[in-house]
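REVIEWER CHECKLIST
Item 1: Sequence provided? yes
Item 2: Single chain? yes
Item 3: Sequence as submitted:
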Amino acid sequence: MWGRTNGLRVLELGTPGAMRGWLTDLVLAGQKQGTAGLLELDYHAENEELEHVGEHLALIDDSGAHTATVEVVGVTQVPFAEVSWEFAESEGEGYGSIDDWREAHRRYWRDEGVAVDDTTTVVCLSFRLLGR
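Item 4: Structure as written out by the authors:
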């Protein structure tokens, strides 16, 4: 998920392939303005610091190219069961309800080898597209 390009930390969404292409396209279209990560998996295990408000990140597409720059406008840590519907909608992925969001994210992280329960800490990252 992380690295550096052009002096900026990198933001790679989802897993490589079709998912990353789809999520990147959602950001470029202005639909996706948030993404969720797990504190343990995406930060502690990778020895990565949390983002901070005002930080610029290089959005990387599936080919590894810096396709856009986003600015972090919010970073919160909440238990999985407390992720808000407002945040889930900001991900722009078409969830019909917070329960849909929770099921999709449990499945995604389970496929990544991590079991998520209601107390698992989720990092909710909100951003805005600065430019391509």
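Item 5: Key structural point noted by reviewer: The helical segments are 18-28, 39-44, 85-90, 98-111.
Item 6: Recommendation: ____
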